């Protein structure tokens, strides 16, 4: 088989760019290593397994595949290609697909004694099994079967299985099971059409090999800032094959100049396995990160063994603090209004998502709500650079039961592990409009799970604000909201009705404002003790939401609605939405070119001058 791939030889993940210039990151990850990697994107052999016979027939050992497909890509596209169709296919039951390719063993960046070949999938699933030369692999987390499809996972390739020429086999299975976190993709409960989209699963992000040290820091970093005293708490994860005494060394480098701002060593004894370790570093002269001044610093973190060998990772971070106090949101102890927009990337490429982010900034947004979807991790880096605040969400299941809650928690933890260092990410939603928690008003078990996860987030991830269930049916326990924000989804195309809804929301009316009661559980009495956010509104152009279709009329209506928002005690708003996606034709940005269909600055209500209407 002739294998075409993005990289035909080893490439460095930290090219010599001269000076401080930030390296181009070709891999879908936020943390870099000064090592070599080999992308395995390109042609893979492919076969569908409609009767799920591949495991019993041991396709991992020998199988004649039906054809070739491009990785990354979706199973839906690959099914269509295999059947000669032009458009992607969906399904109503279980789908199983097998992929295979060969690779030549790359040279190692460190000595053989110190290095391991690591295989990483940027995202793949929902259920993934991987074999090397016919032998089943286990992930670094000791999973024979990896579950999830929004975050990366890795395998250390055993030396005894590696050959000069190697065969990599992947089995991917997915279903329409409503207990699987899937966001707005169709399921057994919600069918495609309206706001429900075609499934897009499988081999959806890059896969690569890289040389890593036996004893190293994993590519995940948590950052919590104490902005008053310029103290930063970093959470690192060590992975060690050789027990012994080590030193974690942190060095913070200034932007542009490359000046060392702070450095410190932390000696510790490590046993075999993984360990999370929190360390603090004082950076007295650091500037704070904000949308107006998105100042980032480079963190160089090293795990140094007793011979002096240093295994290194690098990432960027910013110092910032987010709080909800009274009816205001405070960024770095200053009140901020959130001019936001709802963003559903769908099947957009990384290049298209970059265009979208810049266009949303041009619209005047300082906040993007990435709506119940997983995105390429480099988008978080881009938001950090642009000074764009992000509201992220766990892709929701479509049914409420013990399994869906177990899957939801696992997906949340996987996402948190990889999004802990970004100053742009300030808000997390656990659920949206009680999708996957539809019994929230009557089930103590469902409310207790969400309450427990809210408390967990408060203790373990204090750098984020947390919303329990966005849109309505927030949870109250003894009159205390289990959400840092009181959010409402308000859809009406009528200006007078809009004024009335905002008046009632501001007055603390919990019934008859949104589609359902704003609060469930114990009675909650709103007295401006929590910020109000209109976290969805508008949608003008989508048939189900009403409002004007033409750009000029939409511009005027949006400007009028924004003016009404600022006349009320509202802390922020999220307009629906950034781009068209499938049947939802209500976007303000061309999904392919990034061009605006409305004037620049339309959603910026922070500036005193009114928007100039065309």
Automatic annotation (TrEMBL):
Transmembrane segments: none annotated. Keywords: Glycosidase, Hydrolase. Residues 1-22, 593-614 are annotated as: Disordered. The keyword Hydrolase applies. Residues 223-320 form the Glycoside hydrolase family 2 immunoglobulin-like beta-sandwich domain. Residues 1-15 have a biased composition (Polar residues). One of its GO terms (biological process) is carbohydrate metabolic process. The keyword Aminoacyl-tRNA synthetase does not apply. InterPro entries: Beta-gal/glucu_dom_sf, Galactose-bd-like_sf, GH, GH2_Domain-Containing, Glyco_hydro_2_cat, Glyco_hydro_2_N, Ig-like_fold, Ig-like_GH2. GO terms for molecular function: hydrolase activity, hydrolyzing O-glycosyl compounds. Residues 40-178 form the Glycosyl hydrolases family 2 sugar binding domain. Residues 327-459 form the Glycoside hydrolase family 2 catalytic domain. Belongs to the glycosyl hydrolase 2 family. PANTHER family: BETA-GALACTOSIDASE, BETA-MANNOSIDASE. This is Glycoside hydrolase family 2. It comes from Spirosoma rhododendri.
